[in-house]
């Protein structure tokens, strides 16, 4: 049985004030083409369907068209809410949609939704766990304090048959012991990782389809995976290759996956160099000038209207920075000032002495200087 795993669509998102709707429509069309080519049984959408709790009309319309086309292709849809979604809005109409094999878990209500499928290898259970916080789970299990305890309580109260094949769809921040997954600027992670959950809680599941982090990656083991977002939503993701994950489950011990690459309408790229080079046709003609661009200019001299000059070549430039001797000096000066603030008088004098004499202070010299500084402090007080 084959499933397509994706997440973090963030439909309706704006990046640096650029609407991503056209790019999202383009990438959803690619996902539909992948469905036609690989013919999975269903699609696992692991949260953050929308970018806001109250999405705009255009965002809702786009996702509605996507769901409708998936249904017409005969796919079962399994979908959970993410931290960006309004769980109640995601739930709306869910019971009606379920009759059309569109299974939605927006809010946690004391028990996970479970869908039963079967093939020549027997029964397969798909569990849907929407994004949860401890406060939500505490309504049902008052002893819960942390995210780890919340997910443990949820799964411990489920009657999971380990002899059958089990899939879980979830939208949480998962770690594995001391190993933390790759993160991006566009993700919303609690300070200090207070929302992390260890991958060991998923031992009963043959495949865990995760959402929340935007880079495709495994965590803990190969069958606990983040599919990643289908589009780049920050320049920290510029080097990532976006994809959807095709998961094949035969017998219980036979789970394989394949990352199927996605090609965006407009990529998100970083370019660096002097203005003359970045606006040279020989340079810019080698890539799509309509991509979303973060440019770093290295010219030493001031340039009149640099953003205007760059925008004439790269109309979708999102960010402009400068890197030259002046900016590097400013950075060094700030670091030096911070360094001075963190050193005491004795440390500063030792450095001064060594610069002047080309040798460090002796133990006796340090003692003399330390006594002088203490006497001066006494006189001032």
TrEMBL record:
InterPro entries: Calcineurin-like_PHP, DNA_Repair-Maintenance_Comp, Metallo-depent_PP-like, Mre11_N, SbcD, SbcD_C. It comes from the Bacteria. It holds the Pfam family SbcD_C. Residues 264-356 form the Nuclease SbcCD subunit D C-terminal domain. GO terms for biological process: DNA recombination; DNA replication. SUPFAM superfamilies: Metallo-dependent phosphatases. One of its GO terms (molecular function) is endonuclease activity. Residues 1-216 form the Calcineurin-like phosphoesterase domain. Keywords: DNA recombination, DNA replication, Endonuclease, Exonuclease, Hydrolase, Nuclease. Belongs to the SbcD family. Heterodimer of SbcC and SbcD. SbcCD cleaves DNA hairpin structures. These structures can inhibit DNA replication and are intermediates in certain DNA recombination reactions. The complex acts as a 3'->5' double strand exonuclease that can open hairpins. It also has a 5' single-strand endonuclease activity. This is Nuclease SbcCD subunit D.
């Amino acid at each position: 049985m084959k499933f397509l795993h994706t997440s973090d669509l963030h439909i309706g998102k704006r990046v640096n004030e650029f609407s991503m709707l056209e790019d999202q429509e383009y990438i959803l069309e690619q996902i539909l083409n992948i469905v036609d080519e690989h013919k999975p049984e269903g699609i696992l959408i692991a949260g953050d369907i929308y970018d806001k709790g109250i999405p705009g009309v255009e965002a809702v319309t786009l996702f509605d068209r996507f769901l409708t086309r998936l249904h017409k292709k005969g796919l079962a849809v399994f979908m959970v809410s993410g931290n960006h979604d309004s769980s109640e809005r995601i739930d709306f109409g869910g019971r009606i949609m379920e009759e059309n094999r569109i299974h939605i878990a927006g809010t946690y209500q004391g028990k996970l939704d479970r869908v039963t499928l079967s093939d020549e290898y027997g029964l397969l259970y798909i569990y849907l766990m929407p994004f949860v916080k401890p406060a939500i789970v505490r309504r049902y299990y008052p002893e819960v304090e942390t995210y780890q305890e919340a997910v443990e309580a949820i799964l411990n109260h489920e009657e999971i048959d380990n002899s059958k094949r089990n899939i879980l769809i979830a939208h949480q921040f998962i770690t594995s012991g001391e190993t933390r997954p790759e993160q991006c600027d566009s993700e919303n992670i609690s300070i200090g990782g207070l929302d992390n959950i260890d991958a060991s809680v998923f031992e009963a599941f043959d495949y865990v389809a995760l959402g929340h982090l935007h880079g495709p990656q495994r965590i803990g083991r190969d069958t606990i995976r983040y599919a990643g977002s289908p589009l780049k939503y920050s320049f920290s993701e510029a080097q990532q290759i976006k994809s959807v994950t095709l998961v094949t489950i035969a017998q219980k011990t036979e789970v394989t996956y394949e990352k199927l690459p996605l090609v965006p309408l407009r990529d998100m790229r970083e370019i660096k160099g002097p203005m003359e080079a970045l606006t040279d046709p020989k340079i810019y003609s080698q890539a799509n000038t309509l991509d979303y661009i973060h440019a770093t200019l290295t010219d030493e001299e001031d340039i009149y209207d640099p953003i205007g000059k760059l925008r004439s070549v790269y109309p979708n430039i999102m960010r402009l920075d400068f890197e030259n001797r002046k900016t590097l000096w400013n950075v060094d000066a700030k670091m030096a000032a911070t360094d001075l603030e963190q050193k005491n008088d004795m440390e500063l004098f030792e450095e001064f002495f060594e610069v002047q004499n080309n040798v460090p202070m002796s133990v006796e010299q340090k003692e003399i200087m330390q006594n002088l500084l203490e006497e001066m402090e006494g006189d001032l007080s």
